[in-house]
Design a protein that fits this description.
Layout (H helix, E strand, L loop, with lengths): L1 E2 L5 H23 L6 E6 L2 E7 L2 H4 L6 H13 L7 E7 L3 H10 L3 E6 L24 E4 L3 H21 L1
Parallel strand pairs: 1-6, 4-5, 5-6
Antiparallel strand pairs: 2-3, 2-4
């Protein structure tokens, strides 16, 4: 796993450009009462899939931003594999999403905030670089981390406040 601190300027700028768009998707989730996570998949500097959390809206525990972005990218590329693709996501993927990323053979995952409870790309689990699995992918963490964390904290604070008022 790599930190965003050691990236060349041009690469950091590219990662930031796409993370801004992932944050915009997370804002859409936030506005719809979903956990604010946004994700997009890029291949050759072109967005081929995107998604934001819709588990509540769709009554589907698997409707995470990453899962929806993977499905969209596979449809766009007419392939079950996402070789030469990068996922940008505002929160570290959970085990379900990390497994889907492994099965899709994605090249790299770039995320903003660490998920200290369910993270599966280096914090709690590390499915990204587990030689026992059939595919490993590169991970870069911390791109616009403060912005991603702030949105998640604000969302959960609002949820707690709503619960307290019931």
């Amino acid at each position: 796993m790599h930190s965003s601190d050691n990236l060349p300027f041009a690469l950091a700028r590219t990662h930031r450009k796409y993370m801004i768009q992932a944050i915009q998707l997370a804002e859409q989730a936030y506005d719809e009462g979903e956990v604010p996570v946004g994700a997009l998949i890029v291949r050759n500097d072109r967005i081929v899939g995107k998604g934001y959390n819709q588990a509540e809206q769709l009554n589907d525990a698997t409707a995470h931003a990453e899962m929806l972005a993977i499905s969209a990218a596979c449809a766009t590329l007419s392939s079950k594999y996402l070789t030469d693709c990068s996922l940008y996501v505002t929160l570290e993927p959970c085990p379900m999403c990390a497994a889907a990323l492994m099965w899709s053979k994605i090249d790299q995952v770039i995320f903003g905030a660490v998920d200290a409870d369910y993270g599966a790309c280096g914090s709690v689990f590390n499915m990204a670089s587990n030689a026992s699995l059939n595919h490993e992918f590169k991970v870069i963490q911390g791109i616009m981390e403060k912005e991603c964390e702030a949105m998640l904290k604000a969302f959960f604070r609002e949820q707690r406040d709503k619960e307290g008022k019931k």
